[in-house]
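Students often ask what a holo structure prediction actually looks like on paper. The answer is less mysterious than it sounds. You provide the chain, you provide the ligand, and the output is a string of discrete structure tokens encoding the 3D arrangement of the protein together with adenosine monophosphate.
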Amino acid sequence: MSYDKNNIFAKILRGEIPCKTVYENEYVLSFYDINPQKKIHVLVVPKGEYIDLDDFVSKASEKEIIEFHKAIIHIVKMLKISNQEAGYRVLSNIGKDGGQEVPHLHYHIFGGEKIGKMVV
Ligand code: AMP
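The corresponding structure tokens follow.
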């Protein structure tokens, strides 16, 4: 499967459709999910064109992989839900059985309330 340049997150990254930005740097963009499932529901996407975690780890540079994960920690601190505060959940849906809807790698960050069961 090749990367679909017309997926919705690619359009957000190109500035073609708006988003509510939480954080941005050279490597990542983070924005609020349009259909929040918890009080805090934020998405983090790498700026590079990666379909999912498998694609990212096999094609991205070590710098991109490290910066992506460091950004998540930066964002949870910004949102005051880090491990030192309330805590949070990070989740990435991958492929068909994983329920991935948008074919650009993204991590969901949930927080702001008890997240509940690990898998519903
Ligand atoms: P997934 O099922 O893991 O691929 O999640 C895709 C997520 O993207 C869902 O939680 C959607 O609510 C969210 N989403 C879709 N379109 C947008 C958008 N334009 N802005 C923000 N979030 C979006």
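The radius of gyration is 14 Å.
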